[in-house]
Amino acid sequence: MVQDSEQRAPSVTPATPARVLLPSILPAVAVGVVSCLVLVGVSVAAEELQDLLWGPLPDALRIGRYSVAWMFVMLVATGAAVGLVVWKVPGHAGPDPATVGLDAPVLPPAVLPGLLLATALMLAGGPSLGPENPIIAVNVGLAVWLGGRALPRAPSRMWPALAEAATIGALFGTPVAAALVISEALAREETRGLLWDNLFPPLTAAAAGALTATLVEHPSFDLDLPSFGRPGWGDLSAALVVASAGALLGMGAVRSFPHVHGAFRRLRHPMLMLPAGGAVLGVLAALGGHLTLFKGLDEIAVLARDPEGRSAGEFAVLTVVKLAALVVAASCGFRGGRIFPAVFAGTALGLCAHALVSGVHPSVGVSAGVLGMLLAITRQGWVSLFVAAVLVASPGVIALLCIASLPAWLLVTGRPQMQLRPDGTPVR
């Protein structure tokens, strides 16, 4: 009987002693600060170049800053500039970006300068990608290289986790997003100790990155949409429909991704693939206007300032064009991430729903549209919920999003992701 009771006793996961966790604080803080400074440095450099390319330069040439001709020229020129970096710079600016997600590979130090240059040129030139994937890859490479030399006895697998968490914390200005991403990653791995023991070092790095970003840049994602009170049944119905529609649209983009990627791969050379991609993006910019350029974070603030300022058809065009631009930019070889363009597409979709049915509250439409779109594009459930909720900064919408995520997740789970294997087949 005693033996039976011992066999039935629940297993208890041993906690990690504090003396084991304490030595990780200093390296985590260092990685967090450095990762944030790399992100801010590239972002500021890209913004300065963007201001020049899309301001004084077209003014001096007496061409409209966002005229169809200038957008086309700039996007093709950006493709040529990035193509030259990929072709000639040591390391070729890293692996094919279509094969890389948030979980970045460890790149050798010689590759990192070219990847930084290609990312800055892309951000300034207008393709529809964000900085997250390449900056995470750069910070992971730096952390492994520098950390391995400063603390050779530290576990090598610690440095990528710290750098990824620190960069995500700096991107969103809060360690919460990083904690959610790391939690999902840990769920796929065999770990020892309690969850919070495993989260402690990366969460420290994320907090350091977020605090540094707050001190340097003051990032904010609140779109200042009309306030949202207590949710009703109509709001729940709207959230379910819009989130599912966003997931379906996003999955359409995901399905087209390997085919578009394969078409550009047939050109074989970066000096052909990237300018050709820039030309396609120029045509899309002519259809969607200048708001469909760049990563989309500043542009969604423009949309949110006037939810009534466009028709449902105009919002629909913005949604489709931005999604198409995301697929093209990610397929032809531009170095960048997919989160922020997907947020723009989801925002435009939510405002389209509001324009079609006035009873759909803008905050509900936007948050649900972003949720569904991010679930399809990123396949990161917690991050999708976090970004969707933080855009509207309304506690009442969180419960709606949690419920709306369920049917949207059923639409995307088990299906291809917007990431390819080296042989060009989709990751599932």
Question: Can I get a quick summary?
Answer:
With 428 residues, this protein is mainly α.
Q: What attributes characterize this protein structure?
A:
428 residues; mainly alpha; 69% helix; 0% strand; globular
Q: Measured on Cα atoms, how large is the radius of gyration?
A: 22 Å
* Biggest beta sheet summary: none
Query: What share of residues are in beta strands?
Result: under 5%
Low-confidence segments, given as residue ranges, are none
Q: What's the total number of strands?
A: 0
Order of helices and strands: HHHHHHHHHHHHHHHHHH
Number of helices: 18
The coarse silhouette is globular
Helix % is 55-70%
Q: Kindly state the mean pLDDT as a whole number?
A: 89
Separation of the first and last Cα atoms: 48 Å
Helix/sheet category: mainly alpha
Describe the structure.
The protein is mostly helical and 428 residues long. Helices cover 69% and strands 0% of the residues. It contains 18 helices and no strands. The longest helix is centred in the middle third of the chain and has 33 residues. The termini are far apart.
List the helices and strands and how they pair.
Blueprint: H1 2-8, H2 18-21, H3 25-53, H4 56-60, H5 68-88, H6 112-125, H7 132-150, H8 158-172, H9 175-187, H10 195-216, H11 233-265, H12 270-288, H13 297-305, H14 312-332, H15 339-356, H16 362-378, H17 381-392, H18 396-412
Helix pairs in contact: 3-6, 3-7, 3-8, 3-10, 5-6, 5-12, 6-7, 7-8, 8-9, 8-10, 9-10, 9-17, 11-14, 11-16, 11-18, 12-14, 13-15, 14-15, 15-16, 16-17, 16-18, 17-18
